[in-house]
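Handoff note, outgoing to incoming analyst
You'll be picking up this chain. Sequence as last confirmed:
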Amino acid sequence: MKILKLMLFITILYCGQANLFAQSSTLRGGIKGGINSTKIGGDASGLKPKVGFQIGGFMKYSISDYVALQPEVMFSMQGAKSIKGDISLHYNYVNIPLIAKVYPDGKGFNIQAGPQLGLLASANVKGGDEKQDVSDQLNGTDFAFAVGLGHDFNRLTIDLRYNIGISSTSDQGSYPNNVLQLGVGIFL
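Most recent structure output, in case you need it:
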């Protein structure tokens, strides 16, 4: 009898919680763009950050007033520049982050975190007037963990994120992508 009462209590609790989430859940999408400051870390030396941009789309699924999930698909210019000389690494990725957004006060300010998968679209090394394709020398996938802060307004969202590279761009050592991003999105 105790087991039946416990199961009934858990079922009522679960249904009540699911009903609360169902009433407040919403799905909104939009477009997003911004700037990147990227650097290759780990074993890399003699490099400094390179500025690029990001552009793409997102969907925000609000589970409650306090939690939302935001998957994105973003084209991102990444890489680095040499400290001496005019050599630069230009890596282009299609990044797919799955960001959890937590709203501590249930309003617009949010704390963000989540995993990110990056798919290499192209990779070039430029020096002077010469450009060399090095896509075949890099791993085709890149993994990162994103952390950041943001604020959602009625039709606008802004965020500042840091993507911490988990995997290496090459099998020849540890060369993770590290990216600081400032993004602005518009809900459609």
